[in-house]
Amino acid sequence: MALAGCGFRPLYGTNTTTASGTRLSEAMSSVDVQPIPGRVGQKVRNELIFSNTGGGHAAAPRYKLNVVLREQDIQQLVQVTGNAQGQVYQLQATYTLVDTATGKVRHKGKAISRAPYSRFQEVFANVRARYNAEDRAAETISESIKSQIAAYLATT
């Protein structure tokens, strides 16, 4: 049974094209990711740049990607003494994809990620656990943003 007429196209295939005929990889590499404040913002930005361009600058950027992050710690597993044994690091991102030629917002969206981590008696262990949770959440957020933008660009 042939599925040639079903309209399904893989999003991340090597020959995937947008609706206008441009290769999706070229369209993704034309997204210029703007600086995002903070350590986690830098991590998200680096992940997006690397996944879009392989680590280089966007050649002839057609779009600017603006990302705003919101971080939150949620206490879990509270002991009788009131101390939290575990926490959940929550990262929320709101983004806009702006056409550089017209200045119009072409696409906007949101992404959220939660990463649990344990609390310890040692200060260094707490800091490392938090950094690890931040890194995991940043990777998840950047992948979600990339997927949403790729889906948008594939249909334009």
Present the secondary structure layout.
Layout: H1 24-29, E1 31-33, H2 38-53, E2 63-78, E3 84-99, E4 105-118, H3 123-154
Parallel strand pairs: 1-2
Antiparallel strand pairs: 2-3, 3-4
Please give the order of strands in the largest beta sheet.
1-2-3-4
Helix count from the secondary structure assignment: 3
Helix-strand makeup class: alpha+beta
Give the proportion of residues in helices: 25-40%
Assigned CATH architecture: 2-Layer Sandwich
Span of the ends, CA to CA: 30 Å
Please state the CA-atom Rg, rounded to the nearest Å: 19 Å
In one word, what is the shape? elongated
Strand content: 25-35%
How many structural units, i.e. domains? 1
Number of strands: 4
Q: Under the CATH scheme, which class? A: Alpha Beta
Instruction: Briefly note the CATH topology name.
Output: Double Stranded RNA Binding Domain
Largest sheet: 4 strands, mixed
> What is the element string, with H for helices and E for strands?
HEHEEEH
Uncertain spans, ≥5 residues at pLDDT below 50? none
- CATH homology group: Lipoprotein like domain
Average pLDDT works out at 86
Protein name: LPS-assembly lipoprotein
